[in-house]
Amino acid sequence: MKCLFLLCLCLVPIVVFSSTFTFQNPIDLSSDATPRTPVLDLADKELDSRLSYRIIPTLRGGGGGEVYLGYSPNSAAPCPDGVFRYPSDIAPSGTPVRFIPLSMQFGSGIYEDQLLNIQFNISTVKLCESYTIWKVGDYDESLGAMLLETGGTIGELDSSWFKIVKSSLAYNLLYCPSTPFIYPLFSDDNLCAKVGVVMQNGKRRLALVNDHPLDVYFSKSS
Ligand SMILES: *[C@@H]1O[C@H](CO)[C@@H](O)[C@H](O)[C@H]1NC(C)=O
């Protein structure tokens, strides 16, 4: 009896995993008739993982201000490791990012809903190289949010998976913590959290939010 129970316990993950896997199987996806929707930049060109882009909020004035890599207050990191937005659209240009798909199966294109790492494309000293890769930090109790920071490795568990989804105005960024091996390549929005902005020491810090995700455009950086 006990043996049977144990056997059932062992089978559960296999059944769950295999059904999930069949559903999301990349081989099924490629024979899927539904074409993936490419993400477009401000010039209506398809995003490319070999290029970099500035992330520009759709709002203008004080609601605008591009996304940049800056020093985090209270961080022990030896390098800038905070993801911020400038306070207005008259501030300097943001820091370019590149989007690196979990799988290159779909070529160098970047598609809506595709799981991605995000990396600031800046020249930096060796010590700071890993601090170009976006990740979601621990819950910050004083701000009541998980803040976006940097420090990780492309394709590894110490970085975070994001995706770009269409919003009514432009695009939103979502953070999708699902294990890539269970939800390969594309993941369900319901398992993701929205990226928005919280105030931290007078600066606009990107963070996971329940409401008001940041609506953004992407502009190819020259
Ligand atoms: C990163 O930036 C450098 C310098 O601006 C540029 O030459 C290179 O093409 C960029 N890489 C990507 C992937 O955009």
Automatic annotation (TrEMBL):
Signal sequence span is: 1-18
Q: Name one GO molecular function term.
A: serine-type endopeptidase inhibitor activity
List, alphabetically, the SMART domains matched. STI (SM00452)
Q: Which UniProt keywords apply?
A: Disulfide bond, Protease inhibitor, Serine protease inhibitor, Signal
Could you tell me which CDD domains the record lists for this protein? beta-trefoil_STI_CPI-like (cd23372)
Pfam families per UniProt: Kunitz_legume
| Family stated for the protein in its record | Belongs to the protease inhibitor I3 (leguminous Kunitz-type inhibitor) family.
Name recorded for this polypeptide: Uncharacterized protein
Q: Which organism is the protein's source?
A: Solanum pinnatisectum
